[in-house]
Write a structure and sequence with these properties.
single chain; alpha+beta; 10 strands; about 140 residues; about 15% helix
């Protein structure tokens, strides 16, 4: 009985430590800038339609370029962004290209609409973010 109690306590401590370390994880701009990140859209086996290749590219100067390749070429849109430790309700223009670490990507589009993306994970070839408004998760690859 005593051994079971100790194992349960150790398990709880391990789970708590794992969740705490993930919650405080901070990402560097160098982890994902100067690459083209393509949205990983699962293809439906019954769908014969060609998927449109689309994605994002982040620069060190505080611009994120969204792009998509269509039949008539590459279409792009550029918005400002910065990294933050917390989601933003007001876009801080002073942070553009200065905040090089954070857990959230904060963007401002041409209509002055703020969007926060929580960075869930980044590796050399994969990036996973959550749109904080709608809650959906976007998976990106560099392939």
């Amino acid at each position: 009985m005593k051994r079971s109690a100790i194992l349960i306590i150790l398990f709880i401590i391990c789970v708590f430590a794992t969740n705490t370390s993930q919650a405080s994880r901070v990402f560097n701009l160098t982890d994902f800038c100067d690459k083209e990140w393509y949205v990983d859209i699962p293809k439906d086996e019954n769908d014969d339609e060609e998927l449109i290749k689309q994605g994002w590219s982040f620069s060190k100067n505080g611009e994120v370029t969204s792009f998509m390749f269509c039949n008539d070429g590459k279409h792009v849109g550029v918005v400002k962004f910065y990294l933050s430790d917390t989601p933003a309700t007001v876009f801080d223009h002073n942070m553009i290209s200065k905040a090089t670490r954070g857990r959230y990507i904060v963007t401002l589009n041409k209509a002055n609409y703020i969007c926060n993306f929580e960075i869930i994970d980044i590796t050399f070839t994969r990036m996973i973010v959550r749109n904080m408004i709608y809650g959906f998760i976007l998976n990106f690859t560099t392939d």
